[in-house]
């Protein structure tokens, strides 16, 4: 089983948020093993960290909003979380001093470039894996997506052109 990873160092970015149009500062911090991905609103006094888990999703209308048990929320987290997942970061503290992270260029690549600046570090513990045992498909109108069991990650379009990720 592969090792867990966190960031090699703290990295920051500042910019305007997409939906609220305010300036926000984002800090990504290395975290201890098995801390998971956690959010903290630094602009709200007494805000507790909360995990980036499906059970904390509060809204998905204009982007994913996560809400902590104390009511603090952070919106538009999907590109940042996608970048962390793509970089195989399991443990990270995300501080943001506004209702959303800065939009950057509006894509996950901007966050990946930020993560690349920080580098990565191996931490104690094994990566948790979800093992898909049977195909899963979801459809809405003419759009659909599916997952199939495989030995390694592979992404394909409906045309069959696959992108092999090992």
How do you describe this structure in short?
With 166 residues, the chain is mainly beta. Helix content is 12%, strand content 37%.
Description:
The model has no long low-confidence stretch (mean pLDDT 91). The chain has helices at residues 78-86, 108-118, and strands spanning 3-7, 11-16, 23-30, 37-41, 50-51, 57-59, 65-67, 73-74, 92-96, 120-126, 136-140, 143-147, 154-156, 162-164. The protein has a 5-stranded mixed sheet, with helices on one face. The chain has a single domain, classed as Ribosomal Protein S5, domain 2. The protein is built from 2 helices and 14 strands; from the N terminus they run ββββββββαβαβββββ. With 166 residues, it is mainly beta.
Brief descriptors of the model:
single chain; 166 residues; mainly beta; Ribosomal Protein S5, domain 2; 5-stranded mixed beta sheet; 3-stranded antiparallel beta sheet; 14 strands; globular
Largest sheet: 5 strands, mixed
Helix content: 10-25%
- Which structural class fits the helix and strand makeup? mainly beta
How many structural units, i.e. domains?
1
- By CATH, the superfamily comes out as lpxc deacetylase, domain 1
**Chain oligomer state:** single chain
Radius of gyration over alpha carbons? 17 Å
Question: So, CATH architecture?
Answer: 2-Layer Sandwich
Instruction: Sketch the topology as an H/E string, one letter per element.
Output: EEEEEEEEHEHEEEEE
Strand order of the largest sheet: 2-3-9-4-5
Low-confidence stretches: none
Mean pLDDT value: 91
Helix-strand layout with pairing:
Layout: E1 3-7, E2 11-16, E3 23-30, E4 37-41, E5 50-51, E6 57-59, E7 65-67, E8 73-74, H1 78-86, E9 92-96, H2 108-118, E10 120-126, E11 136-140, E12 143-147, E13 154-156, E14 162-164
Parallel strand pairs: 4-9
Antiparallel strand pairs: 1-10, 2-3, 3-9, 4-5, 6-7, 7-8, 11-12, 13-14
Helix pairs in contact: 1-2
């Amino acid at each position: 089983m592969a090792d867990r990873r966190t960031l090699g160092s703290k990295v920051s970015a500042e910019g305007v948020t997409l939906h609220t149009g305010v300036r926000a500062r984002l800090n990504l911090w290395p975290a201890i093993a098995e801390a998971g991905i956690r959010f903290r609103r630094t602009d709200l006094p007494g805000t507790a960290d909360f995990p980036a888990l499906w059970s904390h999703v509060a809204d998905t209308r204009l982007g994913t909003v996560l809400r902590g048990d104390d009511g603090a929320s952070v919106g538009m987290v999907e590109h940042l979380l996608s970048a962390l997942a793509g970089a195989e970061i399991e443990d990270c503290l995300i501080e943001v001093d506004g209702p959303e992270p800065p939009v950057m260029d509006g894509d996950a690549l901007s966050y990946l470039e930020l993560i690349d600046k920080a580098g990565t570090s191996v931490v104690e513990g094994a990566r948790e894996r979800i093992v898909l045992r049977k195909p899963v498909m979801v459809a809405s109108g003419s759009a659909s997506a599916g997952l199939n069991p495989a030995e390694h990650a592979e992404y394909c379009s409906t045309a069959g052109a696959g992108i092999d990720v090992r």
